[in-house]
Design a protein that fits this description.
Distance between the termini: 19 Å
Structural class: alpha+beta
Strand order of the largest sheet: 1-2-3-4
Number of helices: 2
Strand content: 15-25%
Helix content: 25-40%
Number of strands: 4
Number of domains: 1
Amino acid sequence: MSILKRSPKPGQQSKEPAAPSDGWLEFYAGLQEFLTMTAWEDGARRETGTLMLVAEGGLWKLWIHDRDGKRSVWISGLSVELVTQKAEDIVTGGPADWRPDKK
């Protein structure tokens, strides 16, 4: 599975995705920013991040791709809530085994 960047059709504005419901933001504000924030605090342009969630072999696996930092990390656990919370911790500065993007 992959996510492709698509160029808008001529005359079509690209739009930011709608924010998740407030209930989701209550717990995962860091993920919200990671996925949608297009500028850093100093105004510099920022590429948004991506997440991919997979169920495989009795585990939930979540891939975080930091397009701006050109790195990624996989997380696995027994529940969606566990891997989502760990992702929140990582994107807000927690420790992780980030791997550089391959060229």
